Amino acid sequence: MPKINPVLLKELRERFRTPKTAILVSLYLLVIGGFSLGFIYLRFKDTAGFFQPWYSKEIFAVLSVVQLVLLAFVTPGLTAGTISGERERQTLNVLLTTKLSPVSIIISKMVSSCSFTVLLLLATLPLYSIVFIFGGISPAQVFGLLGFYLVSMFLFASIGIACSTHFKRTGVSTVTAYGIVFAIGAGTGFLAVFLWEIYRMHTMVTQTPLVVQLLQNSNPVMVLFRILGQNAVLGHEQELFLPYWGIYTVIYLLTGTLLLIWAAIKLNPQQRSKFLLFWK
Question: Does residue 276 have a pLDDT over 60?
Fold first, then answer.
């Protein structure tokens, strides 16, 4: 039987064996289900006592957007205190004196936090059955959306872990992580639209500039709407070596991996010195 990392085992037991976990999952489902039922009620009210089946796509969009907003709120909150919390409880130095490497500590914290977020995602899948009752959504769209959430969650969790490793206080780490996630969600979209308007003012371009295309392909809201079948594109996109979702996946996985490597180096001062000497 393979030996499980003791830090990961401890984190999973502490996270899943408390009543707090059941309460958080229930609240999460209550919020998403409340938005969906509220939307159905409004449409039911506007159509004189019956629900039009073609509104199922709108329910699917509402569910997906609310899910993304909650993930952007929950994931940094779960990870931004993982390392700084150990430092505040004065247990980080004890943890570093064990045989566990900083990389394994970082991965353990990451996996335990993400496992809870994955549980939240899986718990919401029955809510999507409301959409399947009326049709109009393919299973490929649902699985594509699930992959999009997992990739986004990986970057959001990596940002929280990196902030938790860099800052000594959990409060500062949490605020910084939320600020970075907000900048990714809103800042990249705003910058893409701003640059696109600047290009259109000075040149009569119809093809999307490369920098604008990369910005809109790295914005989670614009990518989500494209997965949902909406036209969230500025101009005519250039033919690149990957589709928009492939560029999104590569950027998020690469950035998240680099943040975790940096956090592992930051956690071990001796390794950080070797890293700096290597680049001198």
Answer: no
Confidence class for position 50, pLDDT limits 50, 70, 90: low
H/E stretch holding 170 reads helix 170-182
Torsion angle, CA of 241/246/248/251, rounded to 10 degrees? -70
Q: Which two tokens stand for residue 75?
A: 């994931």
Mean pLDDT of 194-214: 79
d(CA 94, CA 262): 21
Q: Which residues face 207 on adjacent strands?
A: 236
More confident call, 115 vs 6:
115
Measured between alpha carbons, how far is 245 from 251 in angstroms, rounded to an integer?
10
Q: Distance between CA 160 and CA 53 in Å, rounded?
A: 40
Spatial separation of the C-alpha atoms in residues 157 and 163, rounded to whole Å: 10
Beta-ladder partners of 262: none
Q: Which residues of 70-93 are buried (b: 16+ CB within 10 A; e: fewer)?
A: bbbebbbebbbbbbbebbeeeebe
Model pTM score = 0.85
Q: What separation in angstroms does the CA of 142 have from each of 187, 213, 243?
A: 27, 25, 18
Q: Which of 183, 179, 235, 240 is nearest to 212 (CA)?
A: 235
Of 54, 38, 78, the closest CA to residue 173 belongs to 78
Of all residues in the chain, the percent with pLDDT exceeding 70 is 88
User: Which helix (H) or strand (E) element contains residue 40?
Assistant: helix 19-46
